[in-house]
Amino acid sequence: MGSANKTSSAARKARIEEMRRAEKARERRNRIFAITGSAVAVAALVAGGVFVIQAQKDDDSSSAADSKTSGSFVTGSDGVKTWKGTLGRTHVAKTVKYPTEPPVGGNHNQVWMNCNGDVYTKAVDNMNAVHSLEHGAVWVTYNSKAGKADVDALAAKVKKTPYTLMSPDDAQADPIMLTAWGHQRTVTGADDANVAKFFEKYVQGEQTPEPGAACTGGLSK
């Protein structure tokens, strides 16, 4: 009988010890889960904070989209106005307020307007057109004061000239203007000799920040 009691007592102690070991194991697992969960939560908070900070930085950068552009025009003896200063070249999403109309450069949209002799009958977004200038295009613009004959003749010239584009711009001061990266001039009409001179000098000219870059594969309207 005593032997049986001893056996029963030993078995009970063994079960208790096993239960204690199991409980300790559960406590260890719970601690590990708690630590891991805390680490994940902290990591998520940190990542979220970094994302917010980065988003704020990106937003600030975009809202001050043309902050790297500074300077002013200097008009040469040939009548061409040249931008003296710096022109930003960052791709941005928010609208850029340019210091000139049409703009001669600056921060711009990552997508360019097609400029392979493309003639647009409606105004284009300045931010896309500036990207075309960066690729070495000459941009012909006109407002409502330009004569139809001049507009038609200029359109015919643009259509025959790679790395050019043309569009109306009612916000510009003069009837017909020619623009390249960092350079701009007014012309009196399609038969003005300065049209050919400007094209010859600035279509893929030395002023081009990205010579040879595409003038197709962008926006077509």
What is the element layout, followed by pairings?
Blueprint: H1 2-63, E1 70-75, E2 81-86, E3 116-119, H2 126-134, E4 138-142, H3 148-159, E5 164-168, E6 176-180, E7 183-186, H4 193-202
Parallel strand pairs: 3-5, 4-5
Antiparallel strand pairs: 1-2, 2-7, 4-6, 6-7
CATH topology descriptor of the largest domain = Glutaredoxin
How many individual domains? 2
Portion in helices: 40-55%
First-to-last CA distance: 102 Å
- What portion of residues belong to β-strands? 15-25%
The structure class reads: alpha/beta
Shape field: globular
CATH class of the largest domain: Alpha Beta
Characterization of the model:
- The chain starts with a helix and ends in a 19-residue tail after the last helix.
- It is globular.
- The protein is built from four helices and seven strands; from the N terminus they run H-E-E-E-H-E-H-E-E-E-H.
- It folds into two domains: 1-63; 70-202, Glutaredoxin (3-Layer(aba) Sandwich).
- Helices cover 42% and strands 16% of the residues.
- Strands 1-2-7-6-4-5-3 form a seven-stranded mixed sheet.
- It has helices at residues 2-63, 126-134, 148-159, 193-202; strands spanning 70-75, 81-86, 116-119, 138-142, 164-168, 176-180, 183-186.
- A hairpin with a 5-residue loop joins strand 1 and strand 2.
- It is α/β, with parallel strands linked by helices.
